[in-house]
Specification:
Elements lengths: L11 E5 L18 H11 L7 E4 L5 H4 L5 H9 L11 H6 L12 H20 L5 E4 L20 H9 L6 E5 L6 H6 L6 E8 L28 E6 L5 H19 L3 E5 L17 H12 L5 E4 L6 H15 L30 H4 L8 H19 L1
Parallel strand pairs: 1-2, 1-3, 3-8, 4-5, 4-7, 5-6, 7-8
This protein binds ligand ZLM, calcium ion (CA) and zinc ion.
Calcium ion (CA) binds next to strand 5.
Length: about 400
């Protein structure tokens, strides 16, 4: 076989449950769990499964999810049926829990949520038990879910549950979010603590881009006696940012944060809707540029929990996450950029059949992020880090 040798003593664990993949949000809904099938097929075709420890993740229990979520909301998710959305008497409950077009009720919803959440909880526990240095759950990363309501295609916040596990063993956890949307649910959950530093890069347009939060000056509770003050970092961006600028910004911000905060572990949300050509996104990142952020995060040698997130053009989501798996395995240089003949669903990768299609050439969005703007963002964040140190 064409397996990839793993450097001695360096452990990567893969946490997945294939029962997540067949769930369907409904006709033409952008979120497609099937992209996980496509990702897995690429990983297998490249033989990467030979180079990591593979775990079938459990479903998170009600009690595990209740460490963050309200019991009445979890009860609702467990009991609700697809037809209930159309029952007028149920209208108030649907509104209470923010059920609608973005977050519909579909067959197996509770099963879907508990499975992706279980993967992230399992991955976090592998890290804290020292059984893995890098733990991956591509089905997780659902950063918008709130304590008592669904939001933006997210129902259960697996990232918050994973961080709560890490906080049992690490004094400080850093959260990095490269999804094109603001990681509001994670930020809000840890808004009042100095034990989690959240950093989100996202498109920001208060009135015209979901969720409308995450401005540069949204840095944590304003009262200086609140420990969470300054512990939320937001990197608001405009349309069309390109690889080189994004990577330079990422390195400056994340490098300074790691140096100042010295986290015991890092959680990296790799939402692939920041790629060019995404159905919902508006950035011009290539698979290589997105992956370079993952590679840089890995250089710190800090225990790393890697989750997925958004990503609405499945052929590109799967390319990015397969490439990033190879980076985490230190095997990116051993991967053929031409997608193997043997991959299942190979037709999805045509006409180029390349792992690195020139995304930004196909549908380039005008870059509205002048260097001068990016420089002010970096300056403001470095200033914030000085306050954070106290
Ligand atoms: N309408 N169908 C990112 C979450 C983004 C809020 C505008 C719903 C859509 C979108 C749903 C088939 C992550 C908003 C949108 C239409 C109010 C959003 C169902 C198309 C469809 O065709 C669609 C009937 C749907 C939803 C587009 N929704 C695009 N953008 C955002 C949520 C999640 O990537 O960050 C992490 C996984 N919602 O803009 C509206 C304001 C609801
Ligand atoms: Ca983000
Ligand atoms: Zn997103």
């Amino acid at each position: 076989h064409n397996g990839i040798a793993r450097p001695k003593g360096y452990r990567v664990s893969w946490h997945a449950n294939p029962a997540v993949e067949p769930h369907h949000f409904g006709q033409s809904h952008p979120m497609k769990p099937w992209r996980l099938t496509l990702t897995k097929q690429l990983v297998i075709a490249y033989g990467m499964h030979h180079a990591m420890d593979l775990y079938l993740s459990r479903a998170a229990t009600f009690e595990e999810m209740a460490e963050f979520h309200k019991a009445d909301y979890l009860d609702f998710l467990k009991q609700v049926m697809p037809g209930d959305m159309e029952v007028p008497e149920q209208g108030d409950r649907m509104a209470t829990y923010n059920i609608g077009d973005d977050c519909p009720i579909f067959d197996g919803l509770y099963n879907y949520c508990s499975l992706y959440a279980g993967g992230t909880v399992d991955a976090a526990r592998k890290l804290v038990n020292n059984q893995s240095e890098i733990a991956i759950n591509w089905s997780g990363g659902l950063h918008h879910a709130k304590k008592g309501e669904a939001s933006g295609f997210c129902y259960v916040n697996d990232i918050v549950l994973g961080i709560l596990q890490l906080l049992r063993h690490h004094a400080r956890v850093m959260y990095i979010d490269i999804d094109v949307h603001h990681g509001d649910g994670v930020e809000q959950a840890f808004w009042s603590t100095d034990r989690v530093l959240t950093v989100s890069f996202h498109k920001y347009d208060k009135d015209n881009f979901f969720p409308g939060t995450g401005g540069l000056d949204s840095t944590g509770p304003s009262h200086p006696l609140n420990p969470g003050a300054h512990h939320a970092i937001n990197v608001p961006l405009n349309d069309g940012i390109e690889d080189d600028d994004y990577l330079q910004l990422f390195k400056e911000v994340i490098g300074s944060c790691v140096e100042t905060y010295n986290p015991g572990s890092i959680v990296l949300q790799c939402g692939a809707d920041s790629l060019g050509c995404d159905r919902l996104g508006c950035f011009n990142l290539n698979v290589t540029g997105h992956g370079a952020c993952v590679a840089y995060t890995k250089t710190f040698g800090i225990p790393l929990l890697v989750v997925g997130g958004g990503g609405y053009t499945p052929r590109n989501v799967s390319r990015a996450w397969a490439h990033e798996t190879s980076i985490l395995l230190d095997a990116a240089d051993k991967i053929d950029p031409n997608i193997p003949e043997t991959v299942a669903f190979r037709n999805h990768f045509g006409p180029d059949y390349s792992l690195f299609p020139p995304l930004s050439e196909m549908r380039r969005i005008e870059n509205k992020n002048p260097r001068s703007y990016l420089a002010t963002v970096v300056m403001a964040i470095k200033e914030q880090l000085r306050y954070m140190q106290g």
